[in-house]
Amino acid sequence: MLKVISSTCLRGRFHTAATNFRHGGDWNPALLRMLASLRSLNSRDHNLHKRAFFCSDTSDSGSEPVVEVEAKAEQAEVEEADSKSSSAIVPTNPRPEDYLTVVALPLPHRPLFPGFYMPVYVKDPKLLAALVESRKRQAPYAGAFLLKDEPGTDPSLASGSEKEKSIHDLKGKELFNRLHEVGTLAQITSIQGDQVVLIGHRRLRITEMASEDPLTVKVDHLKDKPYNKDDDLIKATSFEVISTLRDVLKMSSLWRDHVQTYTQHIGDFNFPRLADFGAAISGANKQQCQQVLEELDVYKRLKLTLELVKKEVEISKIQESIAKAIEEKISGEQRRYLLNEQLKAIKKELGVETDDKTALSAKFRERLDPNKDKCPPHVLQVIEEELTKLQLLEASSSEFNVTRNYLDWLTALPWGTYSDENFDVLQAQTILDEDHYGLTDVKERILEFIAVGKLRGISQGKIICLSGPPGVGKTSIGRSIARALNRKFYRFSVGGLADVAEIKGHRRTYIGAMPGKMVQCLKNVGTANPLVLIDEIDKLGRGHAGDPASALLELLDPEQNANFLDHYLDVTIDLSKVLFVCTANVVEMIPNPLLDRMEIISIAGYITDEKMHIARDYLEKTTREACGIKPEQVEVTDAALLALIENYCREAGVRNLQKHIEKIYRKIALRLVRQESSKEIPPAQSQVEGPAEEVKADNSNETDAVATPENTNESSDETVNAENFRAAEALIVGDTVVTNAPSDQIQTPTDLKNSAESKNIQEIEAPKLSEKVLVDTSNLSDFVGKPVFHAERIYDHTPIGVVMGLAWTAMGGSTLYIETTQIEQAEGKGSLQLTGQLGDVMKESAQIAHTVARAILLEKEPENPFFANTKLHLHVPAGATPKDGPSAGCTMITSMLSLAMKKPVKKDLAMTGEVTLTGRILPIGGVKEKAIAARRSEVKSIIFPSANKRDFDELAPNVKEGLDVHFVDNYSQIFEIAFRDDSDQHKEE
Q1: 115 by DSSP, 3-state: which?
Q2: In the prediction, which pLDDT does 146 show?
Q3: How many other CB atoms are there within 10 angstroms of residue 420's CB atom?
Q4: Measured torsion, CA atoms of residues 200, 203, 209, 213, in degrees rounded to the nearest 10
Q5: Which element (helix H / strand E) includes 116?
Q6: What is the predicted pLDDT for the residue at 253?
Q7: pLDDT of residue 724
Q8: What's the confidence (pLDDT) of residue 892?
Q9: Rounded CA gap, 218 and 146, in Å?
Q10: DSSP 378-391
Q11: CA-to-CA distance for 817 and 402, rounded, in angstroms?
């Protein structure tokens, strides 16, 4: 017979559990009352009070009669629950304990405890059909067994879908081996599709397999081991379980939901059932739950359950702390937000603070007021229109942010604000000379600009382009010009620029739109007449976003930049007062329309004398201060600087020279620090490796040292001697005279080698003596390594067929030898072979030279058939260096004629010039660089085209000094200089 007990009835039974336990009364009603008090925590939930627990009247040895509460209200609830649940509990005949063979249902996740419901999804059609058939035969029972984990796998790493798939694939014997032996006899309450709802009754143990498909097993019904229900240990454990459950229910709403929603089929509420109840609703893993299910000793089962619920208490505490922290954070932010909103509303009512739009408008008007009189009328009109629009827009709209940013840029520009310029020419000259040596053309042009501005009373903008090789000071002179003019300085590089929007700005309709570089420049400097340095203008790119070089035409045109229109601002800006200084390495790379708008000032490479002045007056001083070295601690001789320039830094600029000077001073700094460190080392720590030595000093500074043994390591002797020799050398080359050193401390290298006393004294005293470091040509390689460049002059006396030419290079200029020799000579074999990585222009020059040389030889020596019958080979060393250009024509002709006439050219002669087929000499470029290269190679005579006489006259006197320059129009003049003078000289000799 089945009895129904409502949760309210259950509460009534558990009310006085603790009292009955203490007085040794019947424990069963007391336990029920204790659990009822546990359930009373959810008394506010009306549905929980109407939830029914189902129990069967069994005759198990551990069961006791159920105590019923005589209350009419509760009896009514019992009857109501009985009527609602009559369809869920189906009386069976025979009884459940009579089933010794059952269908095995695998449970993948958790075991089924007696008295608890569990839905199971059955994918095997045969198994599902067997369950449906058994339910129809009034035998709705099956065995629910937990699956073991697959051997060799970690169950925590496998996904649920993979587990389900592996379970469905198991059949017969394989499935039987994967099942735990102990399971639960489960009643099938309903089958809907492939979902089977089970309710546990009692424990089972598998004995053997009865059939494979579907899996049917023979079982034994398990009973709990006999126990003493009056055992104090069991009672205490059960009370602790109940107390822990109460704590968990207080903290965890999840557990309260478990208790509220579980529909249990449970027998008498005794100790075994209490253990099952705690384990079933806990969040323990399946192995721990299976361990509770398999345990038949009631005390041990209670202990296992107590461990599980204790863990749940700890988890609930962590959960509660996390929830509390998050709740505090959220509530704090909400409170702050509400208070801020209230504060804004109060301030607005009192008139203390306006809303965002009014505040923004006030800020923009305040920013505009100081320059309102200077601001152009069309700009003021646009600003007023935008301010009106801003008031009509909602602050949350996207158009509001666009308008706000637009007004921010419009009001931030320096409309009509100019810096006071410097019209003092002498002061400007002083400032320019302080920062740069040389660069006369640039300085003169800036002084002319200042003079014109002084006479007019106002200065206008100009567009100047400084062209020259890298490192000559193009960018740094721009900053000095700004300082001399008292203008703000702004620099931006256009090297590789491929987007027109960087110059002209973006349309405001684009997200993230910004004005162009010029508008950003005016905002940053705060004046409308800055000096803008546009760097690397010869390296402009060109991409899908337009041609920046074309966009610069408007910016750098004096007639157009007074009304420069930026796409973002959409109002014209006056840039006519801006001084633009552009820099370029190769002018030929600049598009012609853009080049036409700029005034070109060429900056050639520095000659050796200029580099010496720059190194002494600027680079060395700056580097010494940057390294923290005092002038009295180091001396770099003029010879060392000259060797550094000639053998390491022949570039046109001084950037590489600066790097080498920095390298020298870094090594000097390291040497000085090491010397200071060696002073601080006690004498005992600076001994040579070997037997113990002791240095004693008396009051008269006389040192007695113990001699080293004869078997001292030879390699360590050499190491120490080398270090001592360097220190001694530093003393010798230094210009410092030491007068306070005892005479017995000044020793020769021989004494240093043979005496251990000298080693120790030298190691200790040398740093004190060599305070000043001297850099000379003898030790320059110790600081900067081996020389990079060697003498360009290959021949002291050029042989027949060899002539020295002059070439322009990116490093400034160099001498270039043209060598011609004959390969074979026979009738009609006249031809020319070229080597030396010559470019197309230079190859054409060689062909022209060959033709002109044949004509000149025919004129000078009509009977000489050299070119008609000789195969020539012309080579231009060095072969690994690419060469191109037309200016080697006259040099090639002279080389061929020298070979044909068997005459060497005049000694110390170099030439350059392009030759036509008629023998005319055309002008060339790079006069200054070629003159510098000739002086560096100690050439006395140079031949230049007559058209370059003006360029040569403009050179500095120190460049032209000592050079005998011949200016020619026709090659016949070169022939007279190169050969006839030489033959006359031989005749005189």
Answers
A1: coil
A2: 86
A3: 9
A4: 10
A5: none
A6: 63
A7: 41
A8: 93
A9: 16
A10: HHHHHHHHHHHHHH
A11: 67
The partner residues of 191 in beta bridges, in order of sequence, read: 196
Q: Residues 830, 870: contact at Cβ < 8 Å? A: yes
Question: For residue 172, what pLDDT is reported?
Answer: 75
> Within a 10 A sphere around the Cβ of 793, how many other Cβ atoms?
15
Q: Residue 873 has what pLDDT?
A: 93
Say how far residue 115 (Cα) sits from the centre of its chain. Answer: 63
Query: In the chain, which stretches have pLDDT less than 50?
Result: 1-35, 37-92, 158-159, 161, 262-267, 684-770, 982-983, 985-989
From first CA to last CA, the distance across the chain in angstroms is 151
Strands 141-146 and 101-107: parallel
Residues 6+ apart with CB under 8 A from 396: none
Complete DSSP assignment for 449-460: HHHHHHHHSS--
pTM of this prediction exceeds 0.70: no
| Closest C-alpha among 549, 594, 569 to residue 505 | 569
CA gap 235, 299 in Å, rounded: 9
Q: How far apart are alpha carbons 400 and 396 in whole angstroms? A: 7
Say what angle helices 840-860 and 889-901 make with each other, to 10 degrees.
Answer: 40
Distance CA 939, CA 962 (A): 9
Our CA angle for 577, 407, 347, nearest 5°, is 140
And the tokens for 153? 């796998």
The three-class DSSP label of residue 147 is strand
Q: Which helix (H) or strand (E) holds 433?
A: helix 425-435
Q: How far apart are CA 489 and CA 200, in angstroms?
A: 88
Identify the DSSP state of 977: I
The span from the CA of 497 to the CA of 501, in Å, is: 10
Report how far Cα 160 is from the mean position of its chain's Cα atoms: 41
* Dihedral, 229, 235, 241, 242 alpha carbons, nearest 10: 90
- For residue 315, the Cα-to-chain-centroid distance in whole angstroms is 42
The total of other beta-carbon atoms located within 10 Å of residue 608's CB is: 17
> Would you state the pLDDT for residue 926?
83
Residue 912 DSSP symbol? -
Residues 608 and 936: beta-carbon distance below 8 Å: yes
Q: Tell me which residue has tokens 């930049």.
A: 561
Q: Is 871 helix (H, G, I), strand (E, B) or coil?
A: strand
Residue 124 corresponds to which amino acid?
Answer: D
Pairing of strands 2-6, 52-56: antiparallel
Determine the 3-state secondary structure of 772 from DSSP.
coil
Q: Which residues contact 609 (CB under 8 A, 6 or more apart)?
A: 958
Q: 3-state DSSP call for residue 601? A: strand
Identity at 619, one-letter amino acid code: L
Distance CA 686, CA 695 (A): 11
Which two structure tokens, joined as six digits, stand for 663?
Answer: 């390298």
CA distances from 973 to 68, 580, 781, 916, 940 (A): 140, 46, 46, 14, 18
Cα 106 to chain centroid distance, Å, stands at 55
Whole-angstrom Cα distance, residue 848 to residue 913? 13
What would the two tokens of residue 65 be?
């009669």
Backbone dihedral region of 628: left (phi > 0), alpha (psi from -120 to 50 degrees) or beta? left
Find tokens 């996207």 and name the residue: 398
Give the active site residues: 887, 930
For residue 753, give the amino acid letter. Answer: K
SS (H, E, C) 616-658: HHHHHHHHHHHHCCCHHHEEECHHHHHHHHHHCCCCCCCHHHH
How many Å apart are CA 241 and CA 235, to the nearest integer?
Answer: 10
For residue 116 the two structure tokens come to: 């608890």
pLDDT computed for residue 868 by the predictor? 86
**What is the per-residue pLDDT for 583?**
92
Peptide bond into 683 cis (omega under 30): no
The CA R_g of the chain, rounded to the nearest whole Å, is: 52
Of 74, 70, 73, 66, nearest to 31 (Cα)?
66
